[in-house]
Amino acid sequence: MVESKTIATQPYYDQKPGTSGLRKRVKIFQQKYYTENFIQSVMHAIEGGSQGATLVVGGDGRYYLDQVMQIIIQFSVAAGIKKLIVPQHGLVSTPAGSHLIRKYKATGGILLTASHNPGGADKDFGIKYNVRNGGPAPENVTNKIFDISKSLEQLHYADLPHVDYSQIGTQTIGTMEVQVIDGVDDYVDLMKEIFDFEAIRYFLQENKDTFKLLFDGMHGVTGIYGQRLFVQEFGLAKEKSLMRAKPLPDFGGEHPDPNLTYAHELVERVEKEQIDFGAASDGDGDRNMVLGKNAFVTPSDSVAVIAHYAREAIPYFRKNGVNGLARSMPTSRALDLVAQKQQLEHFEVPTGWKFFGNLMDAGRCSICGEESFGTGSDHVREKDGVWAILAWLSIVVHVNKTKPGTSIYDILQDHYKIYGRNFFTRYDYEEVESKKATELIQHLQDLSIVGQTFDGFTVSDVDDFEYRDPIDGSVSSHQGIRIMFKDGSRIVVRLSGTGSQGATIRLYIEKYSNNPSEYAMETHKALGPLIQVALDISRLKSFTGRDKPTVIT
Ligand code: G6P
Ligand code: ZN
C-alpha cells in the first residue's frame, strides 16, 4: 500500500506557462516546492480530472530531468493517475512525445524541455503540458494551471523511493502503472508509414561513395533518433554520418539551436568536406536546419519546397492528399505561391505553433512552417525536426530518380525557376530595454506612409496583423507590424514572445524577384537596399541605440 501525504505550501506568482510551457532557469525550479507546486497545479488542471488519467512523461535529457521525473511520479500516484507512459531513460523528442500521446490515446503529456535553450545547472529547464490531441495546452488550460498555482495551499504526493525508468517494462506503484517503453520505436514506425524507407535506403546505399550525409544532433535528444534512422535503418556509417549524437545534460555546453550561428561546426564541415546533405535539430527535436554544398535552405523556402513535392515524393501525402498549407505571418510568402499553383487553401497565422493545431484538427492544414526553423505536418501536433529532414531527404531521393546528381542547390534553383524567389532575412535585436521596444512599435503603429516611395520601394499598405481563427473564431491582435510594398516586398517588425531578458525586436525583410538573373544572388546583396529602407522607416537606431543586430538568420 502506497500512502499519500499532504503538506502545506505557499503559492508562487510567476508560474504562468507560455505556449512552450513554464521555462525558467534551473535555479528557479530548485526553489523550495517550486517544481512541486507547478506539477500539483498541472495535476489539478488536467481536463476531465487526474483520476484515471494516462500521461506520457519524458523530455530532452537536459540537466534536472530525473529530479522532476521523480516529482511527477510521486504526485501522479497521489493524484490518482492510472498510468504513466515513460520513454526509456525519460528521453523523448517533443514531436515523438506528441505522437505517443496520440497513439496511446493518453489524456495528455508532460514534456520536460526548454527546447533550444542551453541546459545545465546554471541554464534553463522547462515543463510543458500537452493535451489529448498531442499539441501544447491551449490558453484556457494554461490559464487554469496559472490560476490554480496562485492559490495553491497544499501538495499531495506519495513518498516513494527513487523510481528507475532505465529498463523497458511495467511497474506498479500503488494503483498506478509506470510503463517504460522504447521511446524511439513508435516514432520510427510512424516515419516508416510516412516516408518510403526502402527508396531512401536504396539511394543512400547505391551512392555510398559519392553522396555524403551528416546529421548533427547538437547533443540534444534527436541523437537517439539519428542513430536509429541513419545508421540502423539506412545503413550509413556512424562515424561519418552522425555528429554530436549523444544526448548530454548540458548539450556539451552549447546552444542546441540549429541555425547558421549555433550549428557553425556543422556548417563548416559541410563546406570543408563537401557534404551533400547536412542537417541538424534542436535540443528537443522540433526545429530543423537543412543545408548542402553551397546551399542553405531557409526555413521559409523549406516549407514551400516540401509542399511543392509532397504528393510526388512522400507516400503519406500521396495517400492522404494535401488539405491545405499554412505559415506564420513573418515567414516569407514562398509557400503562398505553391498554394496558389496547386489551388490549395492557405493560411497566414500569428507566430506560434499552436495556431496550426486548430487548422490541423479541422482537417484544413497538412503542411506548415515558420521562419524560426520550424516545419511540420499533421502527423503530430508539434513541429518536427526529424520529419523535416526526412522530407528533404525524400525529395533529394525523388528528384535523383529522374535527374541523377541533382543537389540541394539545384532543387532550390529549380524551385525559383517555377515560382520566383522570395529573398528573406531576419535581424534580431536582443535584450533591448522594454520601454524603447514599445516606443518603436508605437511609432510604427502611427506611421502614415502609404503611397510614399523609399529608395524605389512604394508603400502599398501598413497594418498591425490581426488573426481571426477560422475554426473557433478567436481573435489575436497586435501580432506584428506589416509594411507592404507595391512590388510584393514586405517588412515586418514584431516583438519576440520567447525572450527571457528585456525585449527582443525582430525585423523581417522579404523581397520577391521573378527575374531569373537574380536567383543565384546572395541574400544580403539582394536585400541590401530594402534592409536600409526598413532601418530608415522604423528609425530603429534612434529608438534603440543599436547599429547592429545581435543575430542574423
Ligand atoms: C517557439 C515557438 C515557435 C515560434 C518561435 C519564435 O519555437 O514554438 O512557434 O516561432 O518560438 O517565437 P518568437 O516569438 O521568439 O519570435
Ligand atoms: Zn525545440
TrEMBL record:
Give GO cellular component annotations, separated by semicolons. cytosol
Origin superkingdom: Eukaryota
Q: What is its EC number?
A: 5.4.2.2
- Gene3D superfamilies for this protein: Alpha-D-Glucose-1,6-Bisphosphate, subunit A, domain 3, Alpha-D-phosphohexomutase, C-terminal domain
Q: Which cofactor does it need?
A: Mg(2+)
Q: Which reaction does it catalyse?
A: O-phospho-L-seryl-[protein] + alpha-D-glucose 1-phosphate = alpha-D-glucose 1,6-bisphosphate + L-seryl-[protein]; alpha-D-glucose 1-phosphate = alpha-D-glucose 6-phosphate; alpha-D-glucose 1,6-bisphosphate + L-seryl-[protein] = O-phospho-L-seryl-[protein] + alpha-D-glucose 6-phosphate
Q: What is the lineage of its organism?
A: Eukaryota, Fungi, Fungi incertae sedis, Mucoromycota, Mucoromycotina
- SUPFAM superfamilies xrefs: Phosphoglucomutase, C-terminal domain, Phosphoglucomutase, first 3 domains
Q: Which residues form the Alpha-D-phosphohexomutase alpha/beta/alpha domain?
A: 15-154, 186-291, 302-417
Instruction: Specify whether Isomerase is a keyword of the entry.
Output: yes
Protein name as annotated:
phosphoglucomutase (alpha-D-glucose-1,6-bisphosphate-dependent)
Q: State one molecular function term (GO).
A: magnesium ion binding
InterPro entries given in the database record: A-D-PHexomutase_a/b/a-I, A-D-PHexomutase_a/b/a-I/II/III, A-D-PHexomutase_a/b/a-II, A-D-PHexomutase_a/b/a-III, A-D-PHexomutase_C_sf, A-D-PHexomutase_CS, Alpha-D-phosphohexomutase_SF, PGM
Tell me the organism.
Phascolomyces articulosus
Q: Name one GO biological process term.
A: glucose metabolic process
Q: Which family, according to UniProt? A: Belongs to the phosphohexose mutase family.
EC class of this enzyme? isomerase
For this UniProt record, the keywords arranged alphabetically read as follows: Carbohydrate metabolism, Glucose metabolism, Isomerase, Magnesium, Metal-binding, Phosphoprotein
